[in-house]
């Protein structure tokens, strides 16, 4: 229902809501849908006091909207209609019971026993309410019986990552940790809730322009040799200096090995169209995904099975490409096809199909508009340049002066971000700090500003601090 509302909402309104509510947008959306349903249900109740059939018809019409919403979703089966059908029976039934109790209450009032009638009506409402709550809880309980991330034993990588060096976490207060703790890892997806997928009923199908269609179970995947890599994921929606970037250690099967099982026809296909458990699609340029970079079907994140929020049981991770064209969570299908033949979710919405992550540096400390004491101030942050030889240098500029070299933290590999810091003798007053990075293959970060749409933000992170 919520997803259908999202689709029907005009883009400007949607963008306003995202700007206004940020990651709270989903709470607002679900809340508005709930309030809307409550208001309409109350209307049905008020009408039902006069004409029960009309009230019930309003409820059934509401259910009809829900059914329509379900049917507009890709890859929904007959089973997905079950909740609506149950509502189509239980809703009017509850209404009939309430209307009957209401009528009895009115008769009791006329007979001078108003108190009894009201009590009976309240009791009916309370029992129905309790049943609804119990039904919801039972539903949650049943879905929690699915196999959980905690129950998965991950295999050892055939090709492990070297130990991650100690970062600057302890040396530079306020700097982003060298490895993002899983619970702090940013989350960006179109989902309103987190899909609950069990490993027992999960499969991955590779089809389209392949020699043979292949379907793998979770155990099949776990049986394949795994690689372990430190990779920094970045969202195309991240603005310069923004929070939608995180670095983790991923464990997974090389994408290439999985594709090879099906045998890909590179003379035809130019994109991998990956589909998630709900039918949401993400497109990845085939040439980039198979150019030797560490593209993988990941099952582990920071030493544990993927959490549900980050794609349990299996997601794609491809270094160097923004998440919206590479990092499909809850992935169930890889279809080898062409951009001409099929459009993915964000392609339909005008976003780019080829979107390498742009070189970027971020100032973590001091914060924008922070008040700091004059004297020795440590400026610090992170920078990333995945699939471009990593970050080779970071420079800082104070008040539009000359660019000066910052010191780099240790390297976690070319696909991983790098911490940096600069010791600054700060005089009192208001100062402007800017930062820029340079990649290992010699490309400087551009100062040309661009919005995230359609292929990622660019420009320099620059902020003001008050030294006093
Ligand atoms: N199934 C699915 N996978 C998805 C998305 C999505 O909406 N649905 N969003 C993508 C985007 S835009 C990004 S940036 C990354 C974010 O991954 P994370 O939430 O684990 O940080 O997931 C990608 N994978
Ligand atoms: Mo993203």
What does this structure look like?
By secondary structure, the protein is α+β, with helices and mostly antiparallel strands. The protein folds into three domains: 2-146, no CATH class; 182-349, Oxidoreductase, molybdopterin-binding domain (Sulfite Oxidase, Chain A, domain 2); 360-467, Sandwich (Immunoglobulin-like), CATH 2.60.40.650. It is 31% helix and 25% strand. The chain has ten helices and 19 strands. The strands form four sheets. The chain has a five-stranded mixed sheet. Helix 3 runs antiparallel to helix 4, helix 4 packs antiparallel against helix 5 and helix 5 runs antiparallel to helix 6 (114-144). The longest helix has 31 residues, at 114-144. The two termini are 53 Å apart. The mean pLDDT is 93. This is Putative sulfite oxidase. GO terms for molecular function: heme binding; molybdopterin cofactor binding; sulfite oxidase activity. Residues 193-345 form the Oxidoreductase molybdopterin-binding domain. Residues 152-173 are annotated as: Disordered. The chain crosses the membrane at residues 27-45, 52-72, 78-99, 120-142.
